[in-house]
Design a protein that fits this description.
The complex is a heterodimer of chains A (276) and B (434). Helix content of chain A is 72%, strand content 0%. Chain A is an all-alpha fold. In chain B, strands 1, 2, 3, 6, 7, 8, 9 and 10 form an eight-stranded mixed beta sheet that branches. In chain B, strands 4-5 form a two-stranded antiparallel sheet. The radius of gyration of chain B is 24 Å and the shape is globular. The chains are: A mainly alpha (276), B alpha/beta (434). At the A-B interface, helix 6 of A face strand 1, helix 2, strand 2, helix 4 and helix 11 of B.
């Protein structure tokens, strides 16, 4: 039986949800606002919220100084490539763990997750030396591989959780109808897990987009993505907050727009298990 | 006739081919500060003169440091020129990681580089990095507030005077703090300031046998003076203030005095950025009558990693960017106040530049810094606000975190000094110094 919700309760819930949402969004809003201020207005004390002379000067300076499209394209290739490659590897792995588990499956899952606990800087030198030997330094392909490996445990874990919600009997029926393993995964499992796969894809794309350790340390000119673009506007000796904010806004804009349009899919995927 | 045309065409093709073979694309790693960004904007001049193209990798200072250190120590070859400081240069030069700059052209006139800068960027008498700009630290103060307090800033003040003046200028009701100085953790932030300040109190990081000296009275005196003065006259939350935070406060008229890098002078006197641009005076960093002032010495310099395939072109770039010709180019485009300071003696003989209000004080500050003999008592290291050993950055970051905890009121001075002493000795023992 559904629980009755009073109007007052609804208003309260809405107010709380909006407050939390605004609180989370505030740093992004502040960055966007600062990007339209002059450097002097950006550091004003008390801070100026809305009532200032809006200017596009910072965007003009950033456009003049940096090749934004080159950084953007690198981000798209690196984040997109690593996510797609990760999914190609993780779907069969998660299928195996969810539907034909062995005695060691849980240990393997935990071990995979434990690799995320290693501080990245701990393996910087081995990976850097490996990249030099393989000629992968400052290449998009090298970064696709590294970011895929970093995010693979999360992709496998998420897909494993979604696949576990799908009744094994459906796959069994497909097998009895003569489906091969490839057909079972491609034509039966994947369509049923689309919301889960979509949210995994989106979350990992965002993680790869924002990754700022490997993308800064393994790139120079050719493969530098938007994280390097932002880093080029940060300075401990000089007040360039408005320009830094303009660069940050330009860097997060694509992912904000993507998140906005895919929010329904994302929420559905994240709550997939709960509503089933 | 036909033969003559063919010969001309062949010659032209050969010339173009030869030019193309010589033209290189240089990758340069650099920091994001005003002077470096200005240089990026003027790179077309270099390309027009030499045919070489330049690609920039601009990063935040700490990110850059990690990035270039990884690359040079693994011989990665990602960069043809690196922007490094006085801390890295002698260490990397000693490791054989940098190309010696001992064969620069006569036109370049390497003897014109300020001796303090050349000394700090050399190892064993060989220059390994050419200074793009240099800095020391000095007192920047509000002339109007000083006058209102009935005081006159001496050219070379003592710490006692600075503390008295700070108290007199403080006006909490109007949010004016008598003094703003760095307290933020980090070896290049608050760590640099307190180390330079401690030199004037007779303190030192190590004795001649590399034993930590935080258990000595001069260190206690330094911290007690700093904390006492800042609690009386400093801004709230000074424990988290670095260069940028203090610059912001000073430009908004909320500091009576600010002791920091000489390059800040061009910011605080720029009427487009500073609300107090027309009432700023300058003085040498304070001392305590012990023969050492509390100013530091630093340079951002250009160096060539050993093993680059483009050494000749890289040297051409360094000669262009750190030459007197480049200084004149900046003056022509942006005015004399914006030329890279603190690198060349001839700049301070130029009457145009001496009209800039902070020029002479910057030079005097640089000349009064001696990285070879930074402390009252002898030390085994070179460097004023740092000790030029590879372990220093890590140790000093931890020590400055302990000090910042004191500034934030989270622990006592004695506790912080005891922890600093222990962690420094442990690290030095592990590194084999003791």
């Amino acid at each position: 039986m559904a629980r009755a919700v009073t109007t007052n309760r609804k208003i309260l819930n809405t107010a709380v949800a909006w407050s939390i949402g605004l609180l989370i969004f505030f740093p992004i809003l502040w960055t966007i606002l600062t990007s339209f201020k002059t450097e002097a207005q950006a550091i004003n004390d008390p801070p100026i919220f809305l009532f200032f002379d809006w200017t596009l000067e910072n965007y003009a300076v950033v456009q003049e100084r940096s090749n934004y499209m080159k950084f953007l394209w690198n981000s798209v290739i690196i984040a997109g490539g690593s996510t797609v490659l990760g999914l190609i590897i993780a779907v069969p792995a998660a299928w195996s763990m969810a539907f034909v588990p062995s005695r060691r499956t849980k240990d393997i899952l935990l071990w995979m997750l434990s690799t995320k606990m290693l501080p990245a800087v701990g393996v910087l030198y081995p990976i850097y030396l490996g990249f030099i030997k393989l000629g992968l330094l400052d290449s998009r392909f090298g970064l696709v591989i590294v970011l895929m490996l970093i995010n693979l445990p999360i992709i496998v874990w998420m897909l494993y959780t979604y696949f576990r919600e799908i009744p094994g009997e459906i796959l069994e029926a497909a097998r009895m109808d003569g489906a091969s393993l490839r057909e079972e995964i491609l034509y039966v499992l994947t369509p049923m897990a689309i919301p889960g796969i979509a949210s995994t894809l989106l979350l990992n794309f965002i993680l790869a987009w924002n990754e700022a350790f490997w993308t800064l340390n393994l790139t120079a000119v050719n493969a530098a993505p938007l994280t390097a673009f932002i880093a080029s506007y940060s300075s401990p000796e000089g007040l360039f907050y408005a320009k830094l904010s303009a660069a940050s806004t330009m860097a997060i804009a694509p992912i904000l727009i993507l998140g906005w349009f895919s929010q329904k899919q994302l929420v559905r995927g994240l709550t997939f298990g709960a509503v089933k | 006739m036909y033969f003559s045309h063919a010969l001309r065409a062949a010659s032209a093709i050969a010339l173009i081919a030869a030019g193309a073979a010589q033209a290189e694309t240089l990758t340069i790693a650099t920091v994001n500060n005003g002077d470096m960004i200005r240089m990026q904007g003027l790179t077309d001049d270099f390309t027009a003169k030499t045919g070489h193209e330049v690609e920039w990798v601009t990063l935040e200072e700490n990110v850059l440091r990690q990035r270039v250190t990884t690359d040079i120590s693994t011989k990665g070859g990602a960069f043809d020129i690196m922007t490094i400081g006085m801390y890295e240069t002698p260490i990397w030069g000693a490791n054989g990681w940098l190309v010696p700059l001992d064969d620069l052209s006569e036109e370049y006139n390497a003897d014109d580089i300020l001796p303090a800068m050349a000394g700090g960027l050399s190892y064993d008498g060989t220059l390994y990095a050419a200074p793009f700009y240099g800095e020391s630290s000095m007192v920047m103060y509000r002339t109007d507030l000083m006058e209102a307090a009935g005081l006159e800033m001496p050219k070379a003040p003592t710490w006692t005077f600075i503390r008295e003046a700070a108290a007199a200028m403080t006006d909490r009701d109007n949010e004016i703090n008598g003094i703003c100085i760095r307290g933020k953790a980090g070896w290049g932030e608050g760590g640099a300031f307190i180390t330079a300040m401690s030199n004037s109190f007779g303190a030192r990081w190590f004795d001649e046998d590399w034993n930590a000296q935080f258990d000595t009275q001069p260190w206690k005196d330094t911290l007690e003076f700093y904390v006492g003065m800042m609690n009386e006259s400093g801004p709230p939350g000074y424990a988290t203030n670095g260069f940028n935070e203090n610059l912001s406060l000073f430009q908004q008229g909320k500091c009576g005095m600010w002791i920091d890098a000489t390059v800040a002078a061009s910011f605080v006197t720029n009427p487009n950025e500073s609300t107090v641009a027309d009432s700023v005076g300058f003085a040498l960093a304070p001392d305590n009558g012990l023969g050492k002032r509390s100013n530091w010495l630093w340079a951002w310099a250009l160096a060539i990693p050993a093993g680059t395939q483009k050494e000749a072109a890289a040297k051409e770039f360094i000669e262009w960017a750190t030459s007197t010709g480049y200084i004149e180019l900046v003056a022509e485009n942006e005015g004399w106040a914006n030329v890279p300071p603190g690198a060349r003696t001839s700049l301070y003989e130029n009457p145009n530049y001496l009209e800039v209000p902070f020029a002479q004080m910057t030079l005097d500050s640089i000349l009064s810094a001696d990285p070879q003999n930074p402390t009252v008592d002898p030390v085994p290291y070179v460097g004023i606000q740092f000790a030029a050993i590879p372990e220093f950055a890590g140790i000093a970051t931890e020590v400055s975190q302990e000090f910042s905890a004191v500034y934030a009121g989270q622990q006592s001075i004695d506790e912080a000094l005891a922890k600093a002493q222990a962690l420094t000795n442990d690290a030095m023992e592990a590194a084999g110094y003791r």
